[in-house]
Amino acid sequence: MNKKHRGRAKGDPVTYQTPLPAGGVQMETFLPWTLVRRGLKKQVITPLDAPQEFLEEAQRQRRLQEVEQDSPLMRALGLAHHWQRLLDEGRFSSMTEIAAAEGIDLGQASKMSRLAQLAPDLIEAIALGCLEVGVSQLLRGKLPASWLAQREALVAGSL
C-alpha cells in the first residue's frame, strides 16, 4: 500500500506535509471508522467511542458481528431473499424454474421463498438473537401477509 492510501482501510490518522514557500503546513485528518469487506460490498464500521450520532449504529453493528451468523435460519432467509431478487430481476419467471435449477422440491422452495416476506424488524431481531425462532417453526406455519400479524403470531408463538 502506498503512502497516499495509508489509513484508508482502518480510519487511522494520516498526516500530510504540504510544501509551501514559507516552510510547509502539517495537516492531519482523522475519521473514526473501519472499512470491512462483506462479500463484494464494503461496509463502514464506526468505533464505540465515535460521536453520539454514530454510537447507536456502531453498537448495532457490534451486536450483529457477535451473534452467530451461520445458523440454518439465517441461511434460509438469505436464500429466500436471493430467490426473490432473481424473480425481481427477471432471471427466472417462477419458483418452479428456481426449484428445478436448485434441484430441490417445489413445495420446499415455495415455503422457503415465503421467508422473504418476513417483516424487516423481525429479521433484524432474529439476526441479533433477540427472537428465538427456528426454521421449522417458520416453514411449517402459514406466514400472515401483514407485518403486524406476523409480529403478533411470532410473539404469541402460534406460527
What tags apply to this protein structure?
159 residues, alpha+beta, two-stranded antiparallel sheet, 4 strands
What does this structure look like?
The protein has 159 residues and is an alpha+beta fold. 47% of the residues lie in helices and 13% in strands. It contains seven helices and four strands, in the order ββββααααααα. α3 (95-102) crosses α4 (106-113). It is globular and about 65 Å long.
- Helix percentage range: 40-55%
Percent strand: 5-15%
Q: What is the strand arrangement across the widest sheet?
A: 1-2
Largest sheet: 2 strands, antiparallel
| Arithmetic mean of pLDDT | 76
Shape call: globular
Brief characterization of the structure:
This protein is an alpha+beta fold.
What order do the helices and strands come in, and which of them pair?
Elements: E1 14-18, E2 25-29, E3 34-38, E4 41-45, H1 52-66, H2 72-89, H3 95-102, H4 106-113, H5 120-128, H6 135-140, H7 147-156
Antiparallel strand pairs: 1-2, 3-4
Helix pairs in contact: 3-4
